[in-house]
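Hi everyone,

Forwarding the result from last night's run.
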Amino acid sequence: MSEFLRGFAAILRSGWRASPRRLLALTGLMLLEYLSWPLAPLALKYVTDAVVERDVFTATLAASFVPLLALLNQVAGHVAHVLWVEVSDLNLVQVNSELGELSQGSRGLEHHERPDLADRIELLRIGGNPLYMSVRTAVESVGRVLQLVVTVVMLALLQPALLLLLAFALPPLVSARWAFRRFSFAIWGDIERSRRATHLLDLAVRADAAKEIRIFGLEDELRLRLRESREELRRRRFRAEFEGVAAMSAGQLVFALGYVFGLLVVVRGAIDGEHTAGDVVLAVSLAAQTSELVYEIVGTTQFLQRGAEAMGRLAWLRGLVGRLYRPEPLGATVPEHLREGIRFEGMSFRYPSTEVEVLRDIDLDIAPGSTIAFVGENGAGKSTLVKLLCRFYDPTSGRIVVDGEDLARFPAAEWRQRIAAGFQDFVRFELVARESIGVGDLRVAEDGDAVAAAIERAGAEDVVRQLQDGLETQLGKSHADGAELSGGQWQKLALARAMMRTAPLLLILDEPTSGLDAHAEHVLFERYATSARAVARATGGIAVFVSHRFSTVRIADLIVVVDGGAIVEQGSHAELIARGGMYADLYSLQAAAYG
């Protein structure tokens, strides 16, 4: 119950942040709408009693209030509906913005790689977005409770025994709570199945998966597994829903018995002369309202519980990000020019929630203005070194020093503004081509000359020439007029995006050319090395290569061989070949393979 109340309060706070004035206006309209309902039966009581006593004036006056109250109720409801649509939209925009900020605004990647975060995101996806209607439902539930209080007070004044209706209202509420918890347990128990089913559906509709699915003849198998996974989820959730409905029906039956009992008490009183005919009309009308209110509150409670849980998941993410990313121990300013270079001092690293060190005891000096290549087999730790240089993670022990300052003392966002990078798992920004490249440096994204220069440095002129409208071509098949590109073409545009920053302190190419052939990769790296030398003269910047093709990395000033999370060799290409160690063996194997 305490979790529900915290979630309920969070929903109201969220609505208040979205639009305080609108929420106040809606609260007033809600009071007008919901409190007008109990007054209508009171007017009917006076109409009935006046008719029985043949009092035309009182009957007419009382009767005139009934349509007036109905009009107020309808007008308030219609005006409130218009405002609710706007408040719900504003609230959803606010919540989604916060979710995006929590997800992408933190300095690291740790939370992205946690399965518990993936579980909660999946629950938000399959929950039908209860956050959209949560504020409206929360405020309306307050209105229904107020209406119920007024109704019960009027019933108590009429016949104290009718207060027992409150006791009879407890079973439906308790059963609704049980039903919701039963369904929630079913959802949590199925979360891995749900994610697996979502993955299968994603495979079924993704264009990049279509080729392998067809080549390996997986169409029927994929459809079968997708159908079975969804059918299993449907059966388990239907069972939970059915049990919940049965429990809620039993609770409603208890209230119905109490409702009949209350009416019999009032009718018996009227027969004995203790109540008037108007009292019977009032009791019947108010009891009917109470029955409807209890039913609505039960339904509202279920929806609110889902909204409260959704807000709880958002609060959980807020807490997770706060715990994972403590305030940075700032105090250092990112240099404009590298003078001492970058040094790894006894650095080790293991990914959070694991006990395995993927890097250990790394000691390495990188001179300013130099080019360095990390080579080694898959899983050796090369890309992890790049992640640490980008401050996506901080070392578990030891440190990375930039011009004599601990890298952890630099504001992460400011440090990354001085990095230009191209990654193997690049993003396909389905924007206009000029924007897809220009976002590599937002300060000059609209500068045509800057974009053209980046395209030239990346060797992507041939891709732009093939686009129907050049740089103004919309990219991506998610748009009706979008141009679809090959993997290699997308990769060249991603490299052009990486070339947008012309004065970085760190230039990184982390296996960004997997879609290119060996010759194209070699040409690109030569261009990149030329750019790196220009940057080195301007800022003392360091260029970092990560590649599995040894014929390409030989142009680096320093080649670092990583194996099993440790540096096993380092030196120039000529030095490493002369040493006849691991690098020389791997180089010879590749040279023979490329023949």
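The chain has three domains: 2-96+107-318, 342-418+503-594, 429-487.

Cheers,
N.
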